[in-house]
Amino acid sequence: MLVVEDNSVVADAVAEGLRDQGMAVDVAYDGPSGLEKAAVNTYEVVVLDRDLPGLHGDKLCEQIVGSPCPSRVLMLTAAGQVEDRVDGRSPAAARPHRQ
């Protein structure tokens, strides 16, 4: 599993909770690092923040879902406005997982 979140406290807490459940977890703290890890490793699931430095989470999601070995992506956001949350439902995020 890959967690991509720029808030290190949140990213590390999510990763620790997942590891406590026996999952192998990598963490990236910005969009470019997340893209690099996703390109090098195959992850079943990517937990992805939308507002990332360097590469927006929506664009990173498109890259991950469009890759030869796409991962399931769980997008998280602290966006308070309904419009912001709806905007996060990009076509890439809405595509079903290919097996």
Short overview:
With 99 residues, the chain is an alpha/beta fold. It is 42% helix and 16% strand. It has 5 helices and 4 strands; from the N terminus they run βαβαβαβαα.
Q: Name the helix and strand elements from N-terminus to C-terminus, one letter apiece.
A: EHEHEHEHH
**Cα Rg:** 13 Å
Widest sheet, order of strands: 2-1-3-4
Could you say which structural class the secondary elements and strand pairing correspond to? alpha/beta
Subunit organisation of the chains: single chain
Instruction: Outline the low-pLDDT stretches.
Output: 94-99
Helical stretch tally: 5
The overall strand count is 4
Q: What is the CA–CA distance across the termini?
A: 17 Å
Task: Provide the helix percentage.
Answer: 40-55%
The largest sheet is: 4 strands, parallel
Strand content: 15-25%
Mean pLDDT, as a whole number? 85
Shape: globular
